[in-house]
Amino acid sequence: MDKRVPDLASAVAGIQDGMTVMIGGFGGAGSPIELIHALIDRYRATGHPRDLVVVNNNAGNGHVGLAALIEAGMVRKLICSFPRSADPVVFTRMYLAGEIDLELVPQGTLAERIRAGGAGIPAFYTPTGFGTDLANGKPVADFDGRSYVQERWLKADYALVKAETADTHGNLTYRAAARNFGPLMCMAAATTVVQATRILAPGSIDPETVITPGIFVQQLVEVPHPQQEEDLNRANATYPLEA
Q: b or e along 18-45 (b: 16 or more beta carbons within 10 Å of the residue's beta carbon)?
């Protein structure tokens, strides 16, 4: 029942070429920077994993975190709702050069597709996107006189998520808006890896405050002082970071 792993490298060791990886975060809020950077370190050392399909709300900012993962050439396709964020220079350059594919999904639809994946619902209908290019090729049906677009669930091989507090069984709480997509992604992934600021003994978290039950978490690593994407970008940081 103790789901702790010894270090960040161990936490990302199971991610293989071509896998689909959900990465929590809404911009920098809840972004698991240390897990992402550990995955980049593995790629720089071994050449793997590559050709990843990444699901995230954004397309990364600056040259750290998700942007650095894309810049390293590890991502074949990005599924996201907001590729034009504060400083998406890496994604923009690579997309225009044809070096990465994009599947654009409205934000609410993205959240619901992930939720559906975790709930075992293979498809659902939404009015969002009807009559636009985003609905091209998708089934459409009428309900009560209104047209709806069929959307398919999203599932992943791995989810990388940042939590505030965990116990060793994997029960999680989040810090304010850092919660965002984390709970949904934990449910939709075959393997969920969590970096937590604190990992406590079982029973240390009031059950009434648990947001993600431990059944949805497979691996935990403690990161007591996580970095924040916005702070790194204000410092014009580029990963690998200078010592």
A: ebbbbbbbbbbbbbbbbbbbbbbbbbee
